[in-house]
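Budget justification note: compute hours in this period were largely spent on complex prediction jobs such as the one shown. Inputs:
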Amino acid sequence: MAHDPLTALEQHSIHVIREAYARLKPLGMLWSLGKDSNTMLWLVRKAFVGRVPFPVVLLDTGNEFDEVYAFRDRYVSEWGLDYINAACPGVEETDATLPPASRAAARKTLGLKRLIAERGFAGMLLGIRRDEQAIRGKERYMSPRDADGRWHVREQPTELWGHFQASPPPGGHVRVHPLLAWTELDVWRYVQRENIPVCELYFSRGGKRFRSLGEKDITFPVTSNASSIAEIIAELETTRQEERAGRAMDHEREDAFERLRAAGYM
Amino acid sequence: MTGSLAPVAVCIAGHVDHGKSTLLGRLLHELDLLPDGKVESLKAASEKRGVPLEWSFVLDSFQLERDQAITLDTTRVRVRTPRRELLIIDAPGHRELLRNLVTGAADTSAALLVVDAQTGAEQQTLRHLAFLRLLGVRDVIVAVNKMDLADWREERFAAVRDAMAGSIARLGLSAHAIVPVSAREGANLRERAPAPWWRGPTLVEALEALPVPEASGGGPLRLPVQDVYRMGERRVVAGRIASGALAPLDEVLILPSNRSARVAELAGWPDAPSHAATGDNASVVLADQMVVERGDLLCSPDAPPKVTSVFDADVFWLGHGELSAGRRLTLRVGTREVGARVSAVHHVLDDDTFARKAAPSVGEGGVARLTLRCDTAVAVDDAAALPETGRFVFVDDGLIVGAGVIDASGYPDQRRVLPAAGDIVPERHQVATVERDARAGHRGAVIWLTGLSGAGKSTLALALERRLFDLGWNVYTLDGDNVRTGLNADLGFSPTDRQENMRRVGQVAALFADAGLVCVTAFISPYRDERARARTAAGTRPYFEVWIRSPLEECERRDPKGLYRKARAGGIKGFTGIDSPYEPPESADLVIDTEHLDIEASTRMLVDFVVANCRKS
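Corresponding output:
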């Protein structure tokens, strides 16, 4: 009777999504077009019997890969999504003390802040996972952000037994993280099992593939011959490289990502 | 990994200085699970801070954590041993961060305690253990760490082991294994201990031997309603199944409204499932159009939960300030939120000894047993039988500030006495109440005596009956002797039967009052709910609640029928005052203090009260 590990993760995530929808109004979802947010979108459709009952948002820096934009255009129409293209402010508006790649990434933080201010979202679904990056490992399923979008890591709410703190602080919002407990490998196994569409950049071309998709100027491919989902899974079962090895902003300074996160980065 | 079994979740706990993070970091290294370059970056981070290679930096991912060498928040690591996949959850130890411990440990079934061989367990570690037990942890492994600093002396290990085994047993848990280790040296983690006297397992072997948590799945249906989605003509009831299973055509009972409905279909995407089981997020379409909303509970009609507005609970308290009787809070049971009040604090766990002690309140970070009274009846299970629907969280000002597991075994099921829907239209009597009163010279009324066994209820009831009769009044006393043998001969002494006993007495008393009699009842009637129901049953007839008050010690000293002695000896279960609660009236119409008043004075007080209130005006 017990669920297999993937189904256990799937059902837990659907519970989180439904709870967010019941308690955080209005709710939105960040759709960064990567494997994680596509998986999350799939789970949303399962939660609501095929529908996506809230808008999905791309924080658009204009710097995504062409393949990513093509993927978006196809599935916005195919899945009938209520899509919001949220243009991000320029790099000159970001914190000048951050290292260069982190500054580029911080544009998304500003874009998200602006979107929430404009639309008044009480809750926002994000496809982050704990295993991606150690700081994300400290996250909650429902994580309050203050009016400035800041994360107060020392004052995180208690969560237990499927009970979450779904109440935004004054002027703030709640980040909802349904995929928190998933690993990269879990996501790929689920993508395979459910046959979820993903962007072609994940598959090897000329001995290189993207393990993680970000803006094109700060994201680099890793050496890999994996050209199918099965091959990606086989590769991940043995790799000792970190998933975000190709994401420049994670590696600039010991605390760069921590600072980005505290200031409201995804 | 085979992919067939979810990892066993183990919470690692221990005092900040006992080397918990070091142990976990070193364990990952020993099992060859650190990513390339991790050890090098650890060395760099350690050198930067001028400390020797610090294994705990593997896990302390905030710069602040690395700088202060403490864990601030929960960290989860998947650990693959040669034979097992584990999810190890590192939760912080400081008292002010208990909410992080709770968040980290809530879904674990086992705990790994790290204890310094030189000092033994700190009080905080035992507090963790008390929390972990309430959270559902059952198996405990103890790593007695820093054995290198104790020169691997067997006596030192044995002393810590014996003390820990005792503490663990006192908290009602089982010590799965207690093993000596040195995390810094990596000794007896995966490699065997450098001590010939140790013949037990390595830490990895002990972890591998942890029992697999029981797969749930059986049990009666419990589906807390999370939301209702309108989809065209259909209303889809959404909720995650906490227990049992569900399929089309099943009949479900909806609580607390106490109505039944049939399942028409289970919706789903991309495919509609043929059935839904424990842990599934069901999408249920009911055949009958009825109002269902978030907070309702769908359940098996043949094994429903108990509906009650009062229950006992073992709780931990994370909120600010003291939690004491009278404090108002919100409880969230499943998806239902209900206002509640702490009606009693029975005991708290002592900070130092972890023994139960009487205390008027629970401090922040404390563990206690309470009686809670909710504003409306809620559907609950006993946590011992169905943990998922037998627990709740405390919510205060939108924040989760504690949690508890429910023991409602001493309380009756109020669902049995929910008003039945029906089309009964009462006949109008041709004799009016005023006519009956005029002939009798007094009004018909219910005089409801309540109080502990031995407080003097029967004595006073019978004395009142005699005096009123002598005044020419129509009066009759109902007590256990004249209802238990006839009217209620079918009832036993379970909480539910006792409740039904009281319900019938309330109804009969109301009929007697309606017939123009003064009906005196002499029952312990320990619960406010049942007394309130008796008052309701009396309708427009005068009803007076009289609290025959005497402290438990005094009643027990009198013990006219020897019942207390029998109950203390374990011969009677659920005896009020001993192992079943008495809820004192909050607004009795009359209180007679039989500890200080003798029988004559008490009787006079009661007679005067009844005459004053029921004499024909």
